[in-house]
Amino acid sequence: MKEILSTQPYIGARDFYPEEMRIRNYIFDAWKRVCVRYGYEEYDFPILEPLEIFAAKTGEEIVKTQLFSFVDQGGRSLAIRPELTPGTVRMIAQKFNQLQKPIKWFMIGNNWRYERPQMGRGREFYQLEANIFGVNEISADFEIFNLVIDLMKEFGANSTMFELKYSDRKLINALLLDTLKLDDELAVQTRRLMDKRKKLTPEAFIEGCEKLGLTSDQADLINKFMFCEFNELSQIIPQEILSENAGYLNLVNLRKMIDDAKINEYCVFDPGIIRGFDYSDGLVYEVFDKNTKNRRSLFGGERFDKLIEIFGNLELVATGFAMGDWTLLEFLKNWNLLPELGSKTEYFVTVWPGEDTKYLEYSLKIGTLLRNAGKNTDTWLQTSSKLDKQLKYADKKGYKFAIIAGEDEISNKKVTIKNLKTAEQTTVEYNEFLKQLA
Amino acid sequence: MKEILSTQPYIGARDFYPEEMRIRNYIFDAWKRVCVRYGYEEYDFPILEPLEIFAAKTGEEIVKTQLFSFVDQGGRSLAIRPELTPGTVRMIAQKFNQLQKPIKWFMIGNNWRYERPQMGRGREFYQLEANIFGVNEISADFEIFNLVIDLMKEFGANSTMFELKYSDRKLINALLLDTLKLDDELAVQTRRLMDKRKKLTPEAFIEGCEKLGLTSDQADLINKFMFCEFNELSQIIPQEILSENAGYLNLVNLRKMIDDAKINEYCVFDPGIIRGFDYSDGLVYEVFDKNTKNRRSLFGGERFDKLIEIFGNLELVATGFAMGDWTLLEFLKNWNLLPELGSKTEYFVTVWPGEDTKYLEYSLKIGTLLRNAGKNTDTWLQTSSKLDKQLKYADKKGYKFAIIAGEDEISNKKVTIKNLKTAEQTTVEYNEFLKQLA
């Protein structure tokens, strides 16, 4: 007996039937369009990478438990990429000297993580990754902000639906290192705890800080910091530290640019934005859904000026973000922003049922003519189907026009055009029809 | 000491820098455009599939030695797909009853095989897969022929550059089973040897046949068959067998359609076309480069009416092909068919060098206005770069226009537009400039 195989995809991974594929194309096309509008160039790299590259960047949870990794027939350790940044930086490092700088690049790629699949999140996901390499000034981060906002606006989202919250890792240093005088190790641990702050009660957070060895005064100050307004910073961090702090000065400049460009409605300073990536060393930001029932982070980005050092003695500052397709799609659905995405096929050519091959030949020829005129056209291919069945098919497919050609049409070189929405039909000369198409 | 990582991609896999990505996009866009013009719908499925699905289809070389496979954290055996057909059929089987038939689908996907990387062939490759499911008539194969030819023509190829050679597996049965009366097992072994015929000398082929247990007369007849013209078939296979043979009758009909559509210049009957896929059970075809120095098969396709049976007690006839990106790209390069693919970015906004932030702000604003007018625009972001350096960058990038705004322009609300090809430049009112863009 033959073994019968499962028709399901691997758990947590998606089949894209034409309906889902239309949505995916809608999202990817918008991503591309906006990035190209900003002059960013598209690139790509293999989904399989040497394992070390992922170990080097984070060295944490992803590599240990979430990576799809294996050894190839030649003994090389490989992994399916769980994110796009390491490979991106690898490519930059590879042609470091040839590449014209600054570099503005984007890509759309599939990533895999071994996680428990759940609603709106699977084991594979796509991301748009966009970065600027080689610009130290805050103007680069400002451009990225504009890009992020325009990406969201391209889908019809507005400032009532999302906001971009930002802070700066160097400002966090002004608090932890310069104000509280923590040593580097304790500062890193404290920062990691701060990254979890929004999931904790104030008490649990304070307790966590004390466990790390902070005083309750220090913990209070950190907690206060994480919820303060920009103009309250000087109440927490002494003015003389602030005014010398690169992160603070960056933010002052960024805020002026945001004002000038009148994009304040989208951008909010939030010192509670920390992010988990150890390589972040400047601006950090996250885009949030403003839906009060589902106020979650959609995606984020940061400065990662020093990541390239894992590939050698290279210097190239970097800033950018990655935006996932699952969360975006959920956002679009929740805000009712997904348009009806109909068939791209406009014409359908029927075949008059009958033994004589002339019916099929006539229809095939019309199909060819329509395509040559640039019209997306599906042609029926069976010679014995009832016209009714064919028209039902066309209707279900959402086609606009059906071409019908029977005995009369063929002998008089005519075609009947049926509008499938209104059911109107007209018979015209074959040549006249072609003229109309041109 | 820090370990320094390699910047190379995994051996046999490709990084796509923006120049290579433009070429890839050029190819994929053409593939999509033509398939959509034929009313085919795009779909996709995960690059990781349960291992069994590949074992079931061919059970041969690919699975044993060429598959990238591993066991996941949950103990499931997985493989990175080496081809697109099994996953495609899996999706069809999964929603067998819901899907409107016939089904015309295409996808573009990345495949992986552990092979020795060589010029023009790597361990990963992309394929366009296009199929029709649910049409038994030869009209389906005929439509696929038209699609294949139009795909090649979309790249500028003509009938001096490529040809589509076809035969029919059932016609081969007329020879092996009905004429030579071989048993099924010997017929399969003979067919596999026939598939290698073009790589062998006539003597080696005859010898191979004899090793399988055929007489030298039988071997001669098979050899003669593989090089005969369509109208010589009856000299090899008795007319009474031919005229009852479904494959032969199919071919007669197909050849009439090819004549009617005047695509003879592209299509050649070639009984030497066998193909290695055991599931092929009707028309088989391959597209060949006609370059006399490099007369190789570019890609091929076939009927695979019974493949769906691996997913259960289902019936759905199928025909289609897969076309790879490496071979196509080589073909395009060899025939000099690759166009110059310039930057999609048209405008470049310079920043007048200076301490005052007004220069950057003015330039950023112009960048935004250009983008809002739908122009792809790259903006310089550094405030201290010499204009000369900026213009050199724009020139190397292949941009068309540079916008320059210094002291005069800013105070008089003007912009200077420099044509980077001709070096002409004009200064116009800001508002006038915007009007021109609209």
TrEMBL record, chains A, B:
<dbReference type="InterPro" id="IPR036621">
    <property type="entry name" value="Anticodon-bd_dom_sf"/>
</dbReference>
<dbReference type="GO" id="GO:0006427">
    <property type="term" value="P:histidyl-tRNA aminoacylation"/>
</dbReference>
<dbReference type="InterPro" id="IPR015807">
    <property type="entry name" value="His-tRNA-ligase"/>
</dbReference>
<protein>
    <recommendedName>
        <fullName>Histidine--tRNA ligase</fullName>
        <ecNumber>6.1.1.21</ecNumber>
    </recommendedName>
</protein>
<keyword id="KW-0436">Ligase</keyword>
<feature type="binding site">
    <location>
        <position position="275"/>
    </location>
    <ligand>
        <name>L-histidine</name>
    </ligand>
</feature>
<dbReference type="GO" id="GO:0005524">
    <property type="term" value="F:ATP binding"/>
</dbReference>
<dbReference type="Pfam" id="PF03129">
    <property type="entry name" value="HGTP_anticodon"/>
</dbReference>
<dbReference type="InterPro" id="IPR004516">
    <property type="entry name" value="HisRS/HisZ"/>
</dbReference>
<dbReference type="GO" id="GO:0005737">
    <property type="term" value="C:cytoplasm"/>
</dbReference>
<dbReference type="InterPro" id="IPR004154">
    <property type="entry name" value="Anticodon-bd"/>
</dbReference>
<comment type="subunit">
    <text>Homodimer.</text>
</comment>
<feature type="binding site">
    <location>
        <position position="113"/>
    </location>
    <ligand>
        <name>L-histidine</name>
    </ligand>
</feature>
<feature type="binding site">
    <location>
        <position position="127"/>
    </location>
    <ligand>
        <name>L-histidine</name>
    </ligand>
</feature>
<feature type="domain" description="Aminoacyl-transfer RNA synthetases class-II family profile">
    <location>
        <begin position="12"/>
        <end position="403"/>
    </location>
</feature>
<comment type="similarity">
    <text>Belongs to the class-II aminoacyl-tRNA synthetase family.</text>
</comment>
<dbReference type="InterPro" id="IPR041715">
    <property type="entry name" value="HisRS-like_core"/>
</dbReference>
<dbReference type="InterPro" id="IPR045864">
    <property type="entry name" value="aa-tRNA-synth_II/BPL/LPL"/>
</dbReference>
<feature type="binding site">
    <location>
        <begin position="83"/>
        <end position="85"/>
    </location>
    <ligand>
        <name>L-histidine</name>
    </ligand>
</feature>
<keyword id="KW-0030">Aminoacyl-tRNA synthetase</keyword>
<dbReference type="InterPro" id="IPR006195">
    <property type="entry name" value="aa-tRNA-synth_II"/>
</dbReference>
<keyword id="KW-0067">ATP-binding</keyword>
<dbReference type="GO" id="GO:0004821">
    <property type="term" value="F:histidine-tRNA ligase activity"/>
</dbReference>
<keyword id="KW-0963">Cytoplasm</keyword>
<keyword id="KW-0547">Nucleotide-binding</keyword>
<dbReference type="Pfam" id="PF13393">
    <property type="entry name" value="tRNA-synt_His"/>
</dbReference>
<keyword id="KW-0648">Protein biosynthesis</keyword>
